[in-house]
Design brief:
The strands form 2 sheets. The chain has a 6-stranded antiparallel beta sheet, with helices on both faces. A two-stranded antiparallel sheet has the order 1-2. The protein folds into 2 domains: 5-82, Winged helix-like DNA-binding domain superfamily/Winged helix DNA-binding domain (Arc Repressor Mutant, subunit A); 94-262, GAF domain (Beta-Lactamase, 2-Layer Sandwich). The chain has 10 helices and 8 strands. The radius of gyration is 21 Å and the shape is globular. Helix 1 packs antiparallel against helix 2 and helix 7 crosses helix 9. It starts with a helix and ends with a helix. By secondary structure, it is an alpha+beta fold. Helices cover 50% and strands 17% of the residues.
Length: 264
C-alpha cells in the first residue's frame, strides 16, 4: 500500500504539534483530497495509522460542519461542500485574485490562451488563485486551487531568479522536478539568469509538451510569492506573437503589483 502524503504529514505533525485532534482532522482532509472515490472508515484509519474508533470520531466531527460527507449506500467518506464555502470566503478576501482577474480575461481573450494568477503556499508550491480561459478547441484546463511545484515551469525560473541560491542548491531542486521534456541543468540556469534580467520567463514546452508558458512575477523585490502565468498552444505563437504575449504578461504583473502596494 502506498504511503499517502496525508500520512506523512500526520506523522511529522504529531511529533511537533500539541493539538493532535486538529492534526488528525487535517490529515483526514488531505487524504480524502487524494481519493476521488472516497474511503471507508477502516481504510482511512489504516492509511493514517489511526485507531478506527478515533478515526470515526474525527469523521463525525468534520461531517457535522459539512467538511466531509458520507455516501449512505457504500459508507464511503469524501470531501464535503462545506469546504467550498470556506474556499469561496477565502478567495473573496484575496485582493490579488480580485485585482488581477480583468487582466487575465483580456490576455486569455487576446491570445486564445489560459491565463492564471498563482500564489506561493508554505510548502514551496504555487497555487492557482484566479484563472481565465479562452474558448479554444485545444487548451489546458486549470482550476482554482490547482497546485504545482514552485520551481518548475516558467514560474519556477522566476522563483529561482529571485531566490539567490548557490548552484548546488538550485541543482538539488532541479533534479527533484518532473518535466515532460526536461531541459538540461545548464540551459535552466541560463534561463534563470534571463528571467532575472528581463522580469519574465518562458517555458518552451519543457513542462508540458506542445504548450508554451510565459510567467512574470508580481513585485520586483524579495522572493517571488505571486506571479501571472499564461499557457498557450506553442504552434499558435510565432516570434512576434510570443514577444507581445511576454510584454502583456509582464505589464499585467506590474499593474497588479502597483495596485497591491496601494492597498497597504
Amino acid at each position: 500500500m502506498r504511503l499517502s502524503l496525508a500520512r506523512t504529514v500526520l506523522t511529522d505533525a504529531m511529533a511537533t504539534h500539541r493539538a493532535p485532534a486538529v492534526t488528525r482532522a487535517i490529515a483526514v482532509l488531505k487524504l480524502l483530497a487524494e481519493e476521488r472515490d472516497g474511503l471507508g472508515v477502516n481504510a482511512i484509519a489504516r492509511q493514517l495509522d489511526m485507531v478506527p474508533s478515533s478515526c470515526l470520531h474525527v469523521l463525525r466531527a468534520l461531517a457535522a460542519d459539512g467538511l466531509v460527507q458520507v455516501d449512505p449506500d457504500n459508507k464511503r467518506y469524501s470531501l464535503g461542500l462545506g469546504l467550498l464555502t470556506l474556499a469561496h470566503e477565502m478567495l473573496g478576501r484575496n485582493h490579488f485574485a480580485r485585482l488581477v482577474q480583468p487582466d487575465l480575461e483580456r490576455i486569455a481573450r487576446d491570445y486564445g490562451a489560459t491565463a492564471t494568477a498563482v500564489e506561493l503556499d508554505d510548502r514551496e508550491r504555487m497555487v492557482v488563485v484566479a484563472v481565465a480561459q479562452a474558448p479554444t478547441l485545444l487548451q489546458i484546463q486549470v482550476g482554482i486551487g490547482s497546485r504545482f511545484p514552485a520551481w518548475i515551469s516558467a514560474t519556477g525560473r522566476c522563483v529561482a531568479a529571485a531566490a539567490g541560491l548557490p548552484t548546488d542548491a538550485l541543482h538539488r531542486r532541479f533534479t527533484a522536478l518532473k518535466w515532460q521534456a526536461p531541459p538540461c541543468f545548464e540551459q535552466w540556469l541560463g534561463e534563470i539568469e534571463l528571467a532575472r534580467q528581463q522580469g519574465f520567463a518562458i517555458d518552451p514546452g519543457n513542462y508540458i509538451c506542445g504548450f508554451t508558458i510565459v510567467a512574470s512575477p508580481v513585485g520586483t523585490t524579495g522572493a517571488v510569492r505571486r506571479a501571472v502565468s499564461v499557457v498557450s498552444v506553442s504552434e499558435q505563437l510565432n516570434d512576434v506573437r510570443l514577444a507581445a504575449l511576454t510584454r502583456d504578461t509582464k505589464d499585467a504583473a506590474h499593474r497588479v503589483g502597483v495596485r497591491l502596494r496601494g492597498l497597504r
